[in-house]
Amino acid sequence: MAELLSLEEAVGRLVHDGDTVALEGFTHLIPVAAGQEIIRQGRRGLTLARMTPDIVYDQLIGAGCASKLIFSWGGNPGVGSLHRFRDAVQHDWPVPLEIEEHSHAGMANRYVAGASGLPFAVLRGYTGTDLPAQTDTIKPITCPFTGEQLTAVPALNPDVSIVHAQQADRAGNVQMWGITGVQKEAVLAAKRSLVTVEEIVETLTPRPGAVVLPSWVVTAVAEVPGGAKPSYAAGYYERDNAAYQAWDKVGRDRETFTKWLNDLTGVKA
């Protein structure tokens, strides 16, 4: 059953050095506050997984938290590159970063396989691409019924998955709505899970198209109003486009980024 914890306590308990950590959220409900708390707590050697790493992963990589990234697309959406990500890959700054690249479909199916207790997933999505030649975790497989050549990818079972949602009740049941991406699958595939929410309510009111995560599949819930900013949370606040644009300047330069990092962690220059 889910425990109601502060964000600081939840990250302290659930995220350990060397873990595989998935912070999922597609377009909105991105767990930015949780990612920044991981930075504050100085975690190291993490394998970060995410379908679409954006600026919070740029921050984690720039802070030296990550040793590997498993992903299917990376960028500052609507703006351009992730400069801390690029610096780590090209120049090993602040530490070397190994990358494992998949397609969106491949990543989604890896979470589904993990959530289903299966060792791998099978799909057609890599046909005609050169990703199988670049990524060891993409393998050809022959259908035993039709002889069709398909592609297999291994299940992805993070040590901890972190997602953001709009609401949870006091028993730890979670409800999210809007574009929900692979949050449900990432939580079900993980050994441990943390859901940050905009608010804790007495009763969850059913909403059309909502996803409900029952408390018995969630390890911890933390109430973090604004926890997805600068992304948006449907029904609560809009996307802060100016913040994404501003990040380009911060992330582009090591010295400017280091000042941002010191401000975040409370380190005096």
Attribute tags:
3-stranded antiparallel beta sheet, transferase, 10-stranded mixed beta sheet, CoA-transferase, transferase activity, CoA_trans_fam_I, alpha/beta, NagB/RpiA_transferase-like, 269 residues, 9 helices, 13 strands
Commentary on this structure:
Keywords: Transferase. GO terms for molecular function: transferase activity. Belongs to the 3-oxoacid CoA-transferase subunit B family. The chain has 269 residues and is α/β, with parallel strands linked by helices. The chain is built from nine helices and 13 strands. The strands form two sheets. Strands 1, 2, 3, 4, 5, 9, 10, 11, 12 and 13 form a ten-stranded mixed beta sheet that branches. The protein has a three-stranded antiparallel beta sheet with strand order 6-8-7. α2 runs parallel beside α3, α3 packs across α4 and α5 packs across α7. The radius of gyration is 18 Å and the shape is globular. The chain starts with a strand and ends with a helix.
